[in-house]
Write a structure and sequence with these properties.
Layout: H1 16-31, H2 47-59, H3 70-88
Length: 99
């Protein structure tokens, strides 16, 4: 799999990589029953996305800073691949495109 995230994401960023992060946060939140890990998948990193990311970071016991850097992306990709992809057959993140 091609690694789906190539830059650090922070509030205010937009684009396909933000959409992929949002998509993964929502899938992981549903799979692992993290109710506060949900945001609108629209490709815009706003306050709702930041809150969802921080919920994921807290749940996965990593630094809670609302910044999607190397550690957060590694953890999210690992959880996504172990749960939604493995069990539900979700698309690999590098194949997820904003509609």
């Amino acid at each position: 799999m091609t690694y789906p995230f190539t830059r650090t994401l922070t509030e205010g960023n937009t684009g396909q990589d933000v959409y992929r992060m949002q998509y993964a946060l929502n899938a992981v939140g549903r799979y692992y029953l993290i109710s506060s890990c949900h945001c609108k998948a629209d490709g815009i990193f706003g306050p709702e996305t930041k809150n969802a990311l921080m919920s994921f970071q807290a749940w996965d016991n990593i630094t809670v800073d609302g910044i999607f850097g190397n550690i957060s992306s590694d953890h999210l990709v690992k959880r996504y691949n172990a749960g939604p992809v493995a069990v539900w057959g979700e698309k690999p993140l590098d194949q997820v495109f904003q509609s």
